[in-house]
């Protein structure tokens, strides 16, 4: 440091902060220089009292001098359970200045998704997807940032921010590269663990620069500050003791020096011994003693303010502390004079709002409240919030602190708060409310319902917890009718997501056995068949396909249970390679006038996404790609409109990519699958949806001829055994085997393809396009074991003709042609072209056309093949055909 004190420093807390101030000035300059400059993120880390808040205040001053818009927010130790609290504070200036119609216009499609989380729109009736809400908040801030450029966002005490805000902040920080905005985050080290800590770590990583760690003042700076405050007569020994007593903490130094001034203590060595006692009165027990000296009413006022945490006004505090208005005003003045409370900055709050001078003071005051009284005051605060009409969710943070007392109304309020939290996309907040409701405890007839609701709340974030809650609920009296069936199905879903496939099946099977014949039993049977249908191993129940076929034969599609069974039968028949026309006829019976029935939409919760993906995939692998594409695109649009992110959006993009791949639009497929994989990284590796995105991307890259990139993708994303326990389309073992052959690891590739064939046969999966291992295996064995290759080709042809699609027969003929020579090879290749020309799969048509051109020595066919391959984005096929044309090998 070249200077002990920065010139023209507006705050004592900015002493020895030259480097930090320089970084802030530079960041503001970059922001203001170019509307298209990349965003900047600064993270200030330091223990309490080291000047983080002062640096943020100085950032505001510097930015506003440069004409920037500045929004700020602050986390609170007692407010961490309030979802979206900090992001709401942050956007308050923009939201307050907008009319509802203006906000709707700016937020566009995201209004209904992000609006409820921000408190500017009513939530819907269902459960909002947290990932979708997060994406909506990111989009909202991005749009507002473009409107209000140059924009600076300041977040103080981020370690106390609510989990939902930190989730948003981590996602927003990742997108700063293409948005010109300055974000400055201040936090303490440590303080939090778990999910919130991971979010904060992600924010620091996104900064792209080292975190600024604030240090304590040096003895020289403490001496300079002492003399600037008390006068140049302060001697060296006194100044040195100020530093020793406070440890160089700027806040404690300022407070201590204020105490010295109040006590009119002469700053000389003779009085240095009194500094420690003065310092004790400014913190912890000393602060509490000083508060008590102000009188019981002022103490009650301070306690009430600490209970409220935010939105502190004299009127609200008077209600909570049971003080008259005039007495409350006098208490507020005394507390401001004692530097315990201060007027909050009107730029980030209402003009009459108060706040504690420092979080250390607020914490000390809150902790000084006797435990029983603190809980009682939270109960009164909850009633005040509820009576004001702000709803159960707003009162929830107080309800969580009330002492359990067998209060039926409290249980109802907490359940209502949980419903409100779920509706805005805050399942973790809902979980806390329901767990607290169980402590009350609920009445016996209500207990199972609370557990059911708790299981639903934890479903997206903790499937293992959901399993425990729902099992307990189902073992208690109270859950009957549709709610019991819903709980059983939700339990089976949680077991499935927790990779407990067999238990998932047995759970619904046992419940179905308890039911009389009718729609409810049929619904449970459909769910059982569905889970068995997505299981990648051998059938859990012998004779499953036969029983499913028999049951579906009785279904006309009159209700959704019957429609579900028809979809499941169609998917099972497709996977088994049965006749495509019959498969399509079965699937069509599950529709109503060619559309999904009400209650079976992509965002309906009763059946889940798996069922509709089975329907669309049955069309995709029976050459009805127009219907499959319509369904996949409908899913993507539905999830975008509803703001459903996470796994739903991952699968939607993956299956849109699959449709592009089947159609032969390889470039579009790659783009969709890369987006799917990007989203899947956030949801979590190793899940079936992650496999779906990775498998399809590797398959698409191989089709494009980008072998090295396909291998790198597989290595980077763990596309290797062990494989998931659920079905992935296309078959991952087949794709892995094809990849190994492509990179020259022939023996390993053959082994993988043989394993794929064996696993498919054990499951009864004989679809020759979904499980294409036999085709690649026949080609790989053509030289080494021609007899076996020929047998594989014959079996493949038989399976293809059983299925009866142009794509399957054409692909089988391509394999047969590759194993032959002379005119027989030419004839078979020509037949393959004929079939694939009628197929919707243009990549396979291009490959067949090029192969025929080579065998028949036909330049026109090669040229046409090149045109087709180029339109598909199949660079490898184009290169092969160009080589043949350039060399003229065998061409007339």
From TrEMBL:
SMART domains: TPR. GO terms for cellular component: cytoplasm. Transmembrane segments: none annotated. Gene3D superfamilies: Tetratricopeptide repeat domain. Signal peptide: none annotated. Keywords: ATP-binding, Nucleotide-binding. It comes from the Bacteria. InterPro entries: AAA_16, P-loop_NTPase, TPR-like_helical_dom_sf, TPR_rpt. This is Regulatory protein.
